[in-house]
Amino acid sequence: MPEYEQFDPEKHRRDTPQSVFGPVVKVDKHEGGKIHVITLNRPHRLNSIGDGLGEALYDAFAAFRDDPEARVAILTGAGRAFCAGADLIATSEARQAGAGAQRRTAGPVKNIVPLSEGMNLWKPTIAAINGFAIAGGFMYAMQCDIRVMAQSARVGIAEARWNMGGAGWMVPITRQIGLGSALELTLWGDTQYDAERCYQIGWAQRVVPDEQLLDTAMDYAQRAMYMAPRAVRNMKQALYRGYYMEPLVGQAFGSAIEQNLAGMQDSVEGPTAFSEKRRPNFIDA
Fold it and tell me: Which domain holds residue 263?
């Protein structure tokens, strides 16, 4: 087997990002727009979901999905928390204002859950979890493909403590952490897992010192930039949707998706780069 150059993040310049600022969600674009760092930006409320944060987050992911230059996204939180879930102070005020506010007849128009299937988003996403990811914060983190956690981070699902809804978004948790852990987190809403526990059950792929969190997530993102975009999307879609399929149906589904590789320039470039012992230069989105 030929030896390929090891990925070395130090060789990649941490360029000054192109920034797009909003009141509750910030997007920084790195590496010529290929990496989008999406930051939940309500630190004074531990990035809790309020003031239009959910809708702004939808817009940020939609822009990432539709940007032909974008390859990978990182989701993180400003300040000392990833996301503390629903803004219960605002929820309390709204519900005390009238009984009608206690029930929603329809969900929000803009909702990132489920992120991949619901938004048809098949580019890689990374959650860089700093501090607390509670309830809706857990919900946001579980939408991402992989999770990197700071050592100080903690997660929980507190809906049962405060009689909050959430059964709809909780359904996929069992495929990520198993039924027993999912029940412990949801039925006992005072349960919290630290980063090491999340790693042990396979929910987090890396646990790192707090000061290394974003660098580690960025290293994942930079490595992803050199993968073949169409192949990555095919495999992500096959794994997400095929999870619920009977094996032969899933095999047929995955094979059908990959027909889109035929005739692509990247399908020539990949094997050629392998034979020439160099990194591929993929151009097909």
Answer: 229-275
- Residue 21 pLDDT > 70, yes or no? no
Contacts of 64 (CB under 8 A, 6+ apart): 27, 36, 38, 70, 73, 121, 123
Answer whether 45's CB lies under 8 Å from 78's CB.
no
- Taking residues 46-54, what's their average pLDDT? 94
* pTM for the structure as a whole: 0.88
Tell me: do 195 and 268 sit in the same domain: no
**pLDDT score at 42:** 95
Taking residues 263-273, what's their average pLDDT?
Answer: 93
Give buried/exposed letters for 53-80 (b at 16+ CB in 10 A, else e): bbbbbbbbbebbbebeebbbbbbbbbbe
Do 210 and 237 lie in one domain? The reply is: no
> When comparing pLDDT for 202 and 18, which is higher?
202
Q: Does 220 share its domain with 234?
A: no
Q: Look at residue 54 and tell me whether its pLDDT is greater than 60.
A: yes
What is the rounded CA–CA span in Å between residue 229 and residue 51? 35
Distance CA 174, CA 96 (A): 34
Spatial contact of 122 and 237, defined as CB atoms under 8 Å apart = yes
Q: What is the pLDDT of residue 7?
A: 41
3 occurs within a structural domain: no
Nearest-angstrom CA–CA distance, 226 and 276? 16
State the residue for tokens 């102070």. Answer: 89
Residues 139, 214 within the same domain? yes
Asked whether residue 2 is assigned to any structural domain, the reply reads no
Tokens representing 197 are 């526990």
